[in-house]
Model the fold of this input.
Amino acid sequence: MRKYLITFIMMALVVGLMPLMLPVTAEAQKIYARRVVDRNGRVRYVRTKKPSFYRRHRNRVNMAVGTGAGAILGGLIGGKKGAFIGGATGLGGSALYTYKLKKKKKKYVRIKRY
Done:
């Protein structure tokens, strides 16, 4: 059991440090444009900075964290079978949190006219 836990922790560290080792490409520095419609119906594009990683991949991150936490707790409590049950429970709980309890909220920008 201890060997599996140490292996899991080492793999998590390697996967966590992998993005830091990769070179930054030109695509990663891409400027985003957001479409804004004025009250007259005129459409213009406003440049904005790139959204954060969590904001772009919110659902996936929440599901992965919930599943991993459930699997770790289940594994510590009940071994292999407990890890599977804990992972399934964590997945269900994180899905409930992500899709029902804390839905995404759109930001609406108010355009001031002078």
